[in-house]
Specification:
Helix content is 20%, strand content 30%. By secondary structure, the chain is an alpha+beta fold. The model has no long low-confidence stretch (mean pLDDT 97).
Amino acid sequence: MRVTSDIMVPMRDGVKIGLRLYQPDDDGAYPTLFAISPYRYDTDDIPVHNLFQWRETGPVEWYIDQGYTYVHADVRGSGKSEGTYGFFDHTEQQDYYELIEWIAEQPWSTGKIGGIGQSYYAMAQWFMGILNPPHLTCLAPYDGMIDMYRDSSYNGGIYSEFFVWWYNLVRANNIFRAAGDETGRTMEPDIALEMMRHQTDDEWWRERAAHPHLSKIKVPVLSVGAWGKVGLHLRGNLIAYEELEAPKKLVVTGAANINEAVHMFDKPEFHERFFKPFYDHHLKGIDNGVMEEPSVTIFVRGADEYRNETEWPLARAEYVSYFLSGEPSGSVTSLNDGGLTTESPADAGGSTSYDYPDPQWGLGVVGFGPFGPDPAARVLTFTSSPLDQDTEVSGPIVLELFAASDQPDTDFIVKLSDQLPQAEEERGQGRQPAFAPVTKGWLKASHRDKDEVRSTEYRPFYRHEAPQPLVPGEVYKFEIEVHPTSHVFKAGHRIRLEISNGDSPLTDAVFTHQYMPHKIGSDTLFHDREHPSRLLLPVIPA
């Protein structure tokens, strides 16, 4: 492999973008894979490790062995590139276009260029496709959101700490160096402040949103997501696949978290299975039949296997209503231990109230008991009876919740979990049952203004433009988008819904939502015949 670093490419305004070129050690021309981010190409040689989450380029040397050139660029204002960082602004997007066309003119490139990379690299690919440079040939965004406001920064309108944490990490990686190395640079724009300043979906966010422009993408797209990246990238990969008009394929892996998703993308065998056939077909013209294969491949958790499908969402899904109930499940210790049942509620189905902040919350909303951290003890839970048979839930999910607050606003943070069977002896000792988180949903009550045109039957879409305070004590119906999943709840297991107005680093890692000092009050959830709060699950017939 031949490596050429610090190639400086002038843009239309004279700013030079730095990049590194990887190519076979000869003078031949090869199709090119293009990756760009603010993560510094000069760190490509660091080891694969959980401490280095930005290693999201894929196996570069392996691709060179497969007969590709690989270009890794630093976005404007980061790494070796000149200029001011703009965080996906129009200026940065235009740089993608010019770099792709510059690559096409080089003697080492055949002029066929495909996008590659995870997270930031994937988000950049959506904009590459939207701008449609003539020599862009295909895209393969792995783990890439399309709407930074909804997908991550303000889940359901609730401020998330992740992106602010992320930006400070990127700034630190760009400025700090080992002793004696003076090459660090300061990324001056305070993007973290801008994220907090723009609390609604305004023009600042729209400039950086690919979602409204997906129809402009003309090249073939392989969208690859991970079920474990709910609250960050998953929603983007799924919705993009649904709305793209270009030739497209979808893969959703079983990666459960950031670490698994990153390490999966580093493995050549993962690329050999899903990415290389796509690149070979579109960039090398190999007739391998990849576009004639089933268009969708999903990993079904619980069954723990990949399955091919012809569509997403799955048309054969039958939506089943699981109604919230005040009847105790007797299976878990929580603030209320409510039930979840397929039977419609009675006239006097009652309601469930809780005060916040709970005095026993320890780290976020997680309590601590005699056996250590307890995520369920101090939140509301609604749990089904043990299932009679394996039940697959695959598709978009919505929670219809009737609720009131004594405050002008409140937050709903919703989690769907798979609760495992528990021995009576353990239950008698006061131990909580084991569980596996499945997916999550969020909604800030004042952001309930729904866009009926962009909403679907099982995925409400909110404008997030003009918050509407609640009338304290008034009952409202909230439709909460719970992010899609594909999961088999085994016979004997229980489906558990958890509701609170906060979360915790213990359960949500870096995807937490800061608990604000104005969140003091009491909320009531209703579950009677007049207010039939229910969870709508897409059940796949056996």
